[in-house]
Write a structure and sequence with these properties.
single chain; globular
Length: 257
């Protein structure tokens, strides 16, 4: 029941994230004006704003001017719903679930904004520190697990520090937005455990490096081509949330450590 409710909630949040992804990089209000067609400016009726379903019923077109509506909108809603359901199934603590659902939401928004604009907006990353600390702090109190909260704070500072040093040593490799995102991811990964923290950190580097080499070999990029790194950090962190402990155990088993 919790998984199903989280998935439905994710569909609704995904609809809102479409607004966030479009408006935040443009410094527009999230509440005014209401959702409208970018071509004819007609307001979107509530019955045309149902996640995924409305897009299918409208056949991907505006009801008024029949302009095409990108398939990305229902995909964002669907991905967010699946992600929320997966998080509800993976996070052991019900008290910590709101914190990880929030993480899932900002990860979807930040990954797509970074792909679109090669920026990670402060309007999302900076408030996420406070929200994450509060939500995980409440979860730690509810579960009587102060050690997890202390580990989360250390993980936040440690991953922020690692990325800060990397940017300081090689500024052309990534931006300071990646540093600020690293602190947020370190907070959530640290709360789960050091295995998840290390796996999330290393997977971000592995995925980014693999994609970069593959793009160069496929002649889709040059060595100096700027590639947004945030989506790889996010992908690595989410994989670690779902399976970081299992990945670490498998590696240690194979290596014989």
């Amino acid at each position: 029941m919790v998984v199903a409710l989280a998935a439905v909630f994710g569909l609704l949040i995904g609809s809102f994230l479409n607004v966030v992804i479009w408006r935040v990089p443009r410094n527009e209000s999230l509440v005014s004006p209401p959702s409208h067609c970018p071509r004819c400016d007609a307001p979107i009726k509530p019955y045309d704003n149902l996640p995924v379903v409305s897009w299918l019923l409208l056949r991907g077109k505006c009801r008024n001017c029949h302009a095409a509506i990108s398939a990305r909108y229902p995909l964002v809603e669907l991905v967010t719903g699946v992600l929320f359901g997966g998080l509800a199934a993976s996070v052991d603590s019900l008290a910590a679930l709101p914190a990880y659902l929030y993480l899932g939401a900002i990860c979807v928004a930040l990954a797509l904004i970074d792909l679109d604009t090669k920026r990670l907006p402060n309007a999302i990353t900076l408030p996420s520190y406070g929200v994450g600390v509060v939500l995980l702090g409440v979860a730690a109190l509810a579960d009587d697990d102060v050690d997890a909260f202390v580990r989360a704070l250390i993980g936040m500072a440690a991953l922020y520090g690692v990325y800060f040093l990397l940017v300081f040593a090689y500024p052309a490799g990534m931006g300071f937005g990646d540093v600020k995102l690293a602190g947020v991811l370190g907070l959530y990964l640290g709360y789960l455990g050091w295995s998840e923290w290390f796996v999330g950190w290393l997977l971000g580097f592995f995925l980014g490096g693999f994609f970069g080499v593959a793009a160069i070999l496929a002649r889709r990029a040059l060595r100096k081509t700027q590639v947004p790194y945030g989506p790889f950090m996010i992908a690595g962190a989410l994989i670690a949330v779902f399976a970081g402990g299992a990945i670490a155990d498998a590696y240690l088993g194979v290596s014989g450590v």
